């Protein structure tokens, strides 16, 4: 069997990142607008890449197939492990839940069927790749990324040629300080780089931490490129005043696509944007599903057999499907809530794991994240502040743009 390519792994990471979270970034960044939004996304990409590397460094001390549950329980003990398990499963479920809810609206409209039925069909059709194997996800991820790239280029080309500089650099008040709005973006941006449940999958896939490191960096760079181009083109076409209805609709994918359709005259560009939104939701659903699938298999000790994989499939996909059928709500709200909870296992826990294991084995053999304790503490502080910013926004202490 040929060795898996770095591109394949990078596409898996990118597919986890570049999904419905990307579609929520314009709504989340409507208050901060272009410059502050791009800065917030870029800083988040750097910190989330480092935190993923810290987790990868910690995993090198353990057997392959071991994920968060085993390593956290061993290093940080039971209570911390319980908090980590709860936060990871909560975030995985809330993301899958958001993607399933979005898919119901998208495919329900396309197929002219009930959105709930569309959600069920979507889960059955998309999760079969996760049920089969990581390599199946690799292959479908490359295909989905290809669809996303093609549709993204067509759609963005139509938007890019119509960018209005005054719109791109506009603000509610030219004298206003928009930086506080940027703080509220961070939870959504963090979720948009929330690939960490796939780190152990990448390590097991390559059996080489350095190759896994390169795949992680490649994936986050792909995601950052998509995000920046996307945000610039959206903000260059949609005036800030037109984000009111999108924000009021919870930042739903449908609302964003409808608003874009109002400023794009080309039918081919509109269709490309719709295809892109579909591919983004599907790829992110499959990528997140794979990470949660592998995590739960380790947590519950399910064997890598047909029966064992089906059990893991059931506990991975059925709960978020059931919730999406009975209680769908705003997409950006779900993404932001997931981002606040995700700081535990995307930033704080990976940094603590790396720090503890460095103390156990100070010789630092094998893969080590550069920066020493500075990197460790920077990642922890970033995670804590991001969670605090979300809580402050919920309490109306930080300003939230409402149109």
TrEMBL record:
<feature type="transmembrane region" description="Helical">
    <location>
        <begin position="243"/>
        <end position="265"/>
    </location>
</feature>
<protein>
    <recommendedName>
        <fullName>Aromatic amino acid permease</fullName>
    </recommendedName>
</protein>
<dbReference type="InterPro" id="IPR018227">
    <property type="entry name" value="Amino_acid_transport_2"/>
</dbReference>
<feature type="transmembrane region" description="Helical">
    <location>
        <begin position="143"/>
        <end position="163"/>
    </location>
</feature>
<feature type="transmembrane region" description="Helical">
    <location>
        <begin position="374"/>
        <end position="395"/>
    </location>
</feature>
<dbReference type="GO" id="GO:0015173">
    <property type="term" value="F:aromatic amino acid transmembrane transporter activity"/>
</dbReference>
<feature type="transmembrane region" description="Helical">
    <location>
        <begin position="33"/>
        <end position="56"/>
    </location>
</feature>
<dbReference type="InterPro" id="IPR013059">
    <property type="entry name" value="Trp_tyr_transpt"/>
</dbReference>
<dbReference type="Pfam" id="PF03222">
    <property type="entry name" value="Trp_Tyr_perm"/>
</dbReference>
<feature type="transmembrane region" description="Helical">
    <location>
        <begin position="113"/>
        <end position="131"/>
    </location>
</feature>
<feature type="transmembrane region" description="Helical">
    <location>
        <begin position="215"/>
        <end position="237"/>
    </location>
</feature>
<keyword id="KW-1003">Cell membrane</keyword>
<dbReference type="GO" id="GO:0003333">
    <property type="term" value="P:amino acid transmembrane transport"/>
</dbReference>
<feature type="transmembrane region" description="Helical">
    <location>
        <begin position="86"/>
        <end position="107"/>
    </location>
</feature>
<comment type="function">
    <text>Involved in transporting aromatic amino acids across the cytoplasmic membrane.</text>
</comment>
<keyword id="KW-0813">Transport</keyword>
<keyword id="KW-0029">Amino-acid transport</keyword>
<feature type="transmembrane region" description="Helical">
    <location>
        <begin position="178"/>
        <end position="195"/>
    </location>
</feature>
<dbReference type="GO" id="GO:0005886">
    <property type="term" value="C:plasma membrane"/>
</dbReference>
<keyword id="KW-0472">Membrane</keyword>
<keyword id="KW-0812">Transmembrane</keyword>
<feature type="transmembrane region" description="Helical">
    <location>
        <begin position="329"/>
        <end position="353"/>
    </location>
</feature>
<keyword id="KW-1133">Transmembrane helix</keyword>
<keyword id="KW-0997">Cell inner membrane</keyword>
<comment type="similarity">
    <text>Belongs to the amino acid/polyamine transporter 2 family. Mtr/TnaB/TyrP permease subfamily.</text>
</comment>
<feature type="transmembrane region" description="Helical">
    <location>
        <begin position="272"/>
        <end position="293"/>
    </location>
</feature>
<feature type="transmembrane region" description="Helical">
    <location>
        <begin position="7"/>
        <end position="27"/>
    </location>
</feature>
